[in-house]
Amino acid sequence: MSSYSLDRSKIQAEHISRAALVYIRQSSYKQVRENLESGIWQYAFAEQANALGWTELRILILDEDQGDPLTSRDQGVYSSSQLNTI
């Protein structure tokens, strides 16, 4: 993701026991299409979580509302199990 090193000193077992949530958001289809680098950087946060100790199974990427300007958290985009994770 970047050239800086990740500081794992504050990450404890209590943190790793919870899911790491990565919320990917581009408000419009145009943003999704034109801001490719932004999307790449946002998805790289999942890789960063993995490097900090979260397993791939414990990293939840929330990206179902990409390019949908009308989506809000009140419209029920995410499942109840995802929201319970939060």
Quaternary class: single chain
Summing up helix and strand content along with how strands pair, one would put the structural category as alpha+beta
Strand percentage lies at: 5-15%
Order of helices and strands: HEHHEH
Radius of gyration: 15 Å
Mean pLDDT score: 78
Helical amount: 25-40%
Which tags fit this structure?
single chain; 86 residues; alpha+beta; two-stranded parallel ribbon; 4 helices; 9% strand; flat
Blueprint (SSEs and pairs):
Elements: H1 13-16, E1 20-23, H2 29-34, H3 36-51, E2 59-62, H4 80-85
Give a verbal description of the structure.
It is built from 4 helices and 2 strands, in the order αβααβα. With 86 residues, the protein is α+β, with helices and mostly antiparallel strands. It is flat. The longest helix is centred in the middle third of the chain and has 16 residues, at 36-51.
Question: How would you sum up this structure in a few lines?
Answer:
The chain is α+β, with helices and mostly antiparallel strands and 86 residues long. The chain has helices spanning 13-16, 29-34, 36-51, 80-85, and strands at residues 20-23, 59-62.
